[in-house]
Design a protein that fits this description.
Blueprint: E1 7-12, E2 15-22, E3 30-31, H1 36-40, E4 60-63, E5 68-71, E6 74-75, H2 76-82, H3 85-94, H4 100-111, H5 121-124, H6 133-143, H7 157-182, H8 196-205, H9 216-228, H10 236-245, H11 251-262, H12 270-281, H13 287-295, H14 316-331, H15 338-351, H16 354-358, H17 365-375, H18 383-403
Antiparallel strand pairs: 1-2, 2-3, 4-5, 5-6
Helix pairs in contact: 3-9, 3-18, 6-7, 6-11, 7-8, 7-18, 8-9, 9-14, 9-17, 9-18, 10-11, 10-18, 11-18, 12-17, 14-17
The structure holds s-citryldethia Coenzyme A.
Length: 431
């Protein structure tokens, strides 16, 4: 932030108040309202945080008008094309691209933390077999604080580092176990001789009855999907992790809170909802009917995978995923996938419709991801768990940044109270 010499003048009831202003390295200037209540007795009002910067950060920058997404300054399309997920994890966690030695050491540390405590297996058995994998992940990740006591003291930098590596390393294992449990197949242990994305695919799709060779096309597509979902500034689940962590709660409990928030259909749950919507539409000739439903104020139906709080132009991740969908489905020999045809036609029709143009609604990250994941063999119930596996590094990076800030304070918003003012209790005989 620049110096505090610039101010904004707020005039209330004829009285002027000077509020400091800061300029970022990119994006809008901010007005510092931290002393507003003390100075004026006033609150600001911003449910949904449409105009509120909740923190300062150096991790991810989004320009919604340009459709730009940078991780530590590097554009997402370059990272998706030239990097790989664990290198992006290093970049998000430590701020710079690693040297070959640093990358080898980081990958080794993650690889050697992929197994979970053997006793945790019994947690899965407490769930019904038809439990949603996100329900299982929320429970099992929260329970990690009962198994990894030696990395729950957030005031200890070394314990924060260990918890970070453990979370990134173990999430694929937990997600794969949740999947295996719901389909009644035995758990598959991670291996140390294959890469992160291949390990996840193998833990999901291998069975003891035969050898499993990871298809390099699928592992590259999996790795790219992990890269594209890794972090996204102060979205709802990241803000949940930050707020939970601001009380000093242990990192595992806070990541479990992030998983719970991500599950919502307006957020990370949209990838599952989008594929179910495409399946319900079923064919190109039914698209106009659904476009009208999406525009009808009296109809709660929304085009899942469309719209975004920040992006008012393209979501750059959707652009990369659309290209990947074409590549992966062609390489897998399913390029005539009817859902892909419906998705492409739906995008074309919506982007030429006055309602969507006026409201600046474009495909977001969840619009094409489900088509790729389904072609790779995942059921829709695994789409959001895969989003959670990837976003764990974003949650952890933002958590480390906040917890490591000596200025950190517990998050405690106020309210615009519209309820009853003080009144006396009425005995039941008199009601
Ligand atoms: C993610 O924040 C992030 O960064 C999230 C994310 C990440 O990486 O962390 O990018 C991941 O969550 C992507 C978004 C996935 N969600 C969906 O695809 C669900 C469908 N989209 C919507 O529910 C909605 O667009 C949101 C939730 C994504 C954004 O909602 P906003 O910013 O609160 O906007 P809004 O609901 O106020 O909508 C503005 C207008 C409204 O019309 P009016 O009331 O002004 O008349 O646009 C309309 C909405 O009705 N609208 C839609 C629509 N999305 C918004 N109309 C039809 N279909 C849609 N999808």
């Amino acid at each position: 932030m620049d110096d505090e010499s610039r101010t904004a003048t707020l005039t209330v009831n004829g009285q002027e108040h000077e509020l400091p202003m800061y300029s970022p390295s990119a994006g809008p200037d901010v007005i510092d309202i931290r002393k507003l209540y003390a100075q004026t007795g006033l609150f600001t009002y911003d449910p949904g945080f449409t105009s509120t910067a909740s923190c300062d950060s150096t991790i991810t920058f989004i320009d919604g008008n340009k459709g730009e997404l940078l991780h530590r300054g590097y554009p997402i399309d370059q990272l998706a094309a030239k990097s790989h997920f664990l290198e992006v994890c290093y970049l998000l966690l430590y701020g710079e691209l690693p040297s070959p030695t640093e990358l080898e050491d980081f990958e080794s540390r993650v690889t050697n933390h992929t197994m979970i405590h053997e006793q945790m297996m019994y947690l899965f058995r407490g769930f019904r077999r038809d439990a949603h994998p996100m329900a299982i992940m929320t429970g099992v990740v929260g329970a990690m604080s009962a198994f990894y006591h030696d990395s729950t003291d957030v005031s200890d930098a070394w314990q924060r580092e260990v918890a970070s590596i453990r979370m990134i390393a173990k999430m694929p294992t937990i997600a794969a176990m949740a999947y295996k449990y719901t389909i009644g197949q035995p758990f598959v242990y991670p291996r140390n001789d294959i890469d992160y994305a291949s390990n996840f695919l193998r833990m999901c799709f291998a069975v003891p009855a035969e050898d499993y060779e990871v298809n390099p096309i699928l592992s590259r597509a999996m790795d790219r999907i992990f890269t594209l979902h890794a972090d996204h500034e102060q979205n709802a689940s990241t803000s949940t992790v930050r707020l939970a962590s601001s009380s000093g709660a242990n990192p595992f409990a806070c990541i479990a809170a992030g998983i719970a928030c991500l599950w919502g259909p307006s957020h990370g749950g949209a990838n599952q909802a989008c594929l179910e919507m495409l399946r319900e539409i079923g064919s190109v000739d039914r698209i106009p009917e659904y476009i009208e439903k999406a525009k009808d104020k009296d109809d709660p139906f929304r085009l899942m995978g469309f719209g975004h709080r920040v992006y008012k132009n393209t979501d750059p991740r959707a652009t990369v995923l659309k290209q990947s969908a074409d590549e992966v489905l062609e390489l897998l020999g399913v390029e005539n996938n009817p859902l892909l045809q419906v998705a492409k036609e739906l995008e074309k029709v919506a982007l030429n419709d006055a309602y969507f143009i006026e409201k600046k609604l474009f495909p977001n990250v969840d619009f094409y991801s489900g088509i790729i994941l389904e072609a790779m063999g995942f059921p829709t119930s695994m789409f959001t768990p895969i989003f959670a596996v990837s976003r764990t590094v974003g949650w952890i990076s933002q958590w480390k940044e906040m917890i490591g800030d000596p200025q950190m304070k517990i998050g405690r918003p106020r309210q615009l109270y519209l309820g009853a003012t003080e009144r006396d209790y009425v005995d039941i005989e008199k009601r």
